[in-house]
Amino acid sequence: MSDGSTDSSRDISSRLVWMLGSPRTGSTWLMQLFSEIPDISVIDESYIPLHLVPIDHALNEGEFFQEGPRGNDPHYFFAKRYLPEAFPELRQLFMRGLLRQLEELGQKTDARWIVVKEPNGSHASDSLMSLFPESRLLFLVRDGRDVIDSMIDAMLSEDSWWQQAQGAEEPRFVNERMSFIGHHARLWLQRTQSTQRAYAGLAEEQRHQVGYEDLLADTTAEFGAMLDWLGMDIAPDQLQAVVEKRAFKAIPDSQKGPGKRARSANPGQWKERLRPNEIEVVENVMGAKLRELGYEAEGAIQVQAE
């Protein structure tokens, strides 16, 4: 294995595509689609943005390093006065690390694009893009109520894929459910707002937005549009083969269903699975944003009017 001395000096920022928005938006599925395309390398959650901005310190409005409460505090390591020196060093550190990861993963370090899936770090989207302003942003949008429903299935269900990955001896208590729902509704809103701020600050050619529901309804067209955005010339039959290979129906039955990573590929299940009081809590937090994104959220209107 090389020591990375050659690659580490290369600026790969303009080849990075950050996949941001929220967990449970089809990001794993989309990453798998990209992994099938020659000259695209993928990394599954480096957690760079999570280490860049602690999730419990993220802001609802404004970029963290510019608007954070300690931005003018000289005792703070990332105070604004230190950023001109710190950010170039951080860029080099992260780029060297990403290239080393690609080597370890057996992927091409000189690929045309490096797609980095980071849904859990989306609260730091605007900070991440300020660090890598030449990179691209792929914004994944999904009805936040389905996101919450999917998270409940993953994180509160006994013996789910998430529970197994955590090595938990006991599942999370079901009586945590309401606080869990409120917490993750606020995270969805925070992540969405940060990604929107980052998206708004980029040139048209650097950004692309896709809804999970649209991607599911016509995967070939939506994924093809993403490849066009990246300037990738893929033959129609090759594109179709990739889509069919990674389709939900192609996943073995033993690997999909409740409690599995791939659960149902059926938008709108929140209507059947969330209880009325839970819908009220969720829509009270995210209702305005849902409507802004084009989703119906009548319950939120009623709650906010009370």
CATH level 4 superfamily? P-loop containing nucleotide triphosphate hydrolases
Strands side by side in the biggest sheet: 2-3-1-4-5
State which percent range the strand residues make up. Answer: 5-15%
The shape, in one word, is globular
Per DSSP E runs of 2 or more residues, the count of β-strands stands at 5
Q: Write down the Rg.
A: 20 Å
Helicity level: 40-55%
The CATH architecture can be given as 3-Layer(aba) Sandwich
* Secondary structure tally, helices: 14
The first-level CATH class is given as Alpha Beta
The secondary-structure element order is EHEHHHEHEHHHEHHHHHH
Unreliable residue runs: 1-9, 300-306
Mean pLDDT: 88
Q: How many structural domains?
A: 1
Q: The CATH topology is what?
A: Rossmann fold
Question: What would you say this structure looks like, in words?
Answer:
By secondary structure, the protein is of the alpha/beta class. Helix content is 47%, strand content 8%. The chain has 14 helices and 5 strands. The protein has a 5-stranded parallel β-sheet, with helices on both faces. α6 crosses α8 (177-200), α8 packs parallel to α13 (276-292) and α13 crosses α14.
Give a nutshell description of this structure.
The chain has helices at residues 27-35, 48-52, 64-67, 83-104, 125-131, 144-155, 161-166, 177-200, 212-217, 219-229, 236-245, 270-273, 276-292, 298-305, and strands at residues 16-20, 40-44, 113-117, 136-141, 207-211.
